[in-house]
Specification:
- The protein is of the alpha+beta class.
- The protein has 6 helices and 11 strands.
- The protein starts with 27 loop residues before the first helix and ends in a 12-residue tail after the last helix.
């Protein structure tokens, strides 16, 4: 309305509810829980209202309900109580929100940085590195197949991503040997080893005969080279047994002469 002049006519397409306003929002935004904004109210500026998503989501659409999204990784709005709010970054991890629909909440994940692995939902992940299995240029402390190349097993018992250079190479049965972050030196004592996988081992052969077993070369590739040896104690026992048997069959005086003193030959002197 204007006095003695043409009026400046306006139409707020967000608030006007009138059958004569086919371009008006008619409550469309409000029905979706969104705000309606018509910044240009001139009656000739029509169909320019927008629906705006409520915080902390984002989204705007012209003359239509907006598609509201919420990236819980990047949103720093205080109204977002489910957002990551730097949780992943503080742990040196990457944050990802695969479903950014504003109604899909608390579904962001933290993922460990290479060469570690691990993922957690709406929390910092527990990152692990198996230095035996990881083959990654970013893991200079990893075994990278060193143990396997030597026919040995690789074991990394502590998988925490901060526990590095603690993998070991373990020799295969029946040999023995362990080395930290290196190929192990494998040994096999064929005298003492009782492993069923050792088909070349003495397995008590020498002991059963009262003899000593010795394996001078205990390299795991040096096989069937153990020896049985009579011990000095065994030899003394055999000599005592022989003397006892002789004493039972020979008169004592003769036995003493034979055993303890050399026998002197009697010689006759010839006189010319």
């Amino acid at each position: 309305m204007a006095l003695a002049a043409a009026a400046a006519c306006v139409i707020d397409e967000c608030t006007v509810v009138d059958a004569l306003c086919p371009t008006c929002a008619n409550g469309a935004c409000a029905a979706a829980g969104q705000a309606c904004v018509d910044e240009e109210l001139d009656h000739l500026s029509l169909s320019d209202w927008v629906c705006v998503c409520p915080r902390p989501s984002s989204g705007v659409a012209v003359t239509a309900v907006a598609t509201c999204t919420l990236d819980e990784c990047t949103t720093t709005d205080e109204l977002c109580t489910t957002c990551a709010d730097g949780t992943c970054a503080a742990a040196g991890q990457a944050c990802a929100d695969g479903n950014q629909d504003h109604l899909s909440l608390s579904d962001w994940t933290c993922t460990c940085a290479r060469p570690a692995s691990g993922m957690a939902l709406a929390a910092a992940a527990a990152c692990v590195i198996d230095e035996c299995t990881v083959v990654d240029a970013l893991c200079p402390t990893c075994a990278n197949g060193a143990c396997a190349a030597a026919g040995q097993a690789c074991v990394d018992e502590e998988l925490d991503h901060l526990s590095l250079s603690d993998w070991v190479c373990v020799c295969p049965r029946p040999s023995s040997g362990v080395a930290v972050t290196a190929v192990a030196t494998c040994t096999l004592d064929e005298c003492t080893t009782t492993d069923e996988l050792c088909t070349t081992c003495a397995d008590g052969t020498c002991a059963a005969a009262g003899q000593a077993c010795a394996d001078g070369n205990q390299d795991h590739l040096s096989l069937s080279d153990w020896t049985c040896t009579r011990s000095a104690r065994s030899t003394s026992a055999r000599r005592r047994a022989w003397i006892a048997a002789l004493a039972r069959t020979v008169p004592a005086r003769t036995w003493v002469r034979r055993v303890r003193t050399p026998i002197r030959r009697r010689t006759r002197c010839r006189t010319g």
